[in-house]
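Duplicate of #3305? Posting structure anyway:
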């Protein structure tokens, strides 16, 4: 099997890249180790930055998003029983975000790929990337019980932290930057309308809490818990009681309860792999970087990566110049590090470590009060949350 671009992974990054390449007249093959049902139902990110929304629309993948997604023009910060709304459009020149689950993005892109795009092979496990430093890299993969080879001009690894793409880069050429946090998020899905029409980020002495949503009738909520917590160790009533404590305000606001349909614990870490390119192998998304979910940056960073690659390859096809491809890693990493900074700042702003001192508690409250009382500080948060420019 032969193609111009071999894409490993059919998450939102790999699927969007295939769509962008198709629209540019460049052929590709997508290899995904899981089956279609898994890809379409795995609960992950749910906040799309303005730039991601714009890219999906321009790619022809925004129709259902615009119909069913929930545009949000701000978030609410809660601390010390106070409420403060951050107005995104007023602070960013009209930018906003969209609540639209990653699962739904994948469903839309899969349908387009199967209808109009190149091959998309499910249950096709990539085994290795070979010859990345030469003119004709290959992906060895197993599909329908047979081992096969995909010959490419370029390989893009969108296969996540545990995938094979990053392993093809010699260790002596890489640098890894990471931080592991001593807490995670206990997340629930609940069949109850959201208790607020925008996301609520709460800093509390008992730990962080987030009120989010998946639809007008399904709520997504999170609690900060110690690292390694077993989600099933928390009873449903215990979860609701703790959420109510952490969201408490001085104005009588109430948290609506409903049946919990799913529980899980998300670990918190920051990770960056440099470089993001080796020869004709390019890393995108979680294969190259991971952010704690506080800043809602993971999926959006992956979109930035594949947009950068697609533009660079189209430029090379049109002009014969590899200038933009050669700059891929540097270009992506500028945006990655800004997103890492923002996610780190949001995480340390809102989460309370178990060993926090009274001084650190007061610093957190002072930082939140600064955002609530300074347009400049508030604008910095709004610009970071709605997304850094796609270069």
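Output from current build:
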């Amino acid at each position: 099997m032969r193609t111009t671009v071999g894409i490993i992974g059919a998450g939102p990054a790999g699927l969007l890249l295939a769509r962008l390449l198709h629209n540019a007249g460049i052929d590709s093959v997508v290899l995904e180790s899981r089956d279609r049902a898994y890809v379409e139902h795995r609960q992950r990110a749910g906040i799309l930055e303005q730039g991601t929304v714009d890219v999906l629309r321009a790619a022809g993948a925004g129709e259902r998003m615009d119909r069913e997604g929930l545009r949000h023009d701000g978030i609410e910060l809660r601390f010390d029983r106070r409420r403060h709304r951050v107005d995104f459009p007023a602070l960013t020149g009209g930018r906003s975000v969209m609540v639209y689950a990653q699962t739904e993005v994948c469903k839309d892109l899969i349908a387009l790929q199967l209808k109009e795009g190149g091959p998309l092979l499910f249950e096709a496990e990539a085994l290795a990337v070979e010859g990345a430093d030469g003119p004709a890299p290959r992906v060895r993969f197993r599909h329908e019980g047979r081992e096969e080879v995909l010959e490419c001009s370029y390989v893009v690894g969108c296969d996540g932290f545990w995938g094979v793409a990053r392993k093809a880069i010699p260790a002596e050429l890489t640098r890894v930057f990471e931080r592991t946090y001593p807490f995670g998020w206990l997340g629930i899905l609940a069949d109850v309308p959201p208790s607020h029409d925008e996301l609520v980020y709460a800093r509390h002495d008992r730990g962080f809490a987030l009120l989010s949503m998946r639809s007008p009738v399904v709520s997504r909520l999170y609690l900060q818990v110690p690292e390694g917590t077993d989600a099933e160790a928390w009873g449903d009533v215990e979860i609701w009681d703790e959420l109510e404590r952490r969201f408490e305000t001085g104005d009588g606001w109430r948290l609506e309860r409903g049946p919990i349909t799913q529980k899980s614990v998300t670990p918190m870490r920051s990770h960056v792999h440099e470089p993001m390119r080796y020869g004709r192998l390019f890393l995108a998304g979680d294969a190259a970087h991971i952010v704690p979910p506080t800043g809602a940056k993971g999926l959006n960073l992956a979109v930035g990566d594949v947009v950068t690659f697609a533009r660079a390859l189209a430029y090379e096809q049109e002009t014969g110049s590899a200038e933009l491809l050669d700059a891929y890693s540097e270009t992506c990493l500028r945006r990655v590090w800004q997103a890492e900074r923002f996610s780190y700042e949001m995480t340390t702003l809102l989460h309370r470590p178990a060993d926090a001192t009274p001084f650190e508690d007061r610093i957190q409250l002072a930082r939140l009060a600064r955002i609530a009382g300074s347009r400049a500080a508030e604008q910095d948060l709004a610009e970071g949350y709605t997304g850094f420019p796609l270069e």
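Confirmed duplicate; merging threads. The first strand starts at residue 5 and ends at 8. The mean pLDDT is 96.
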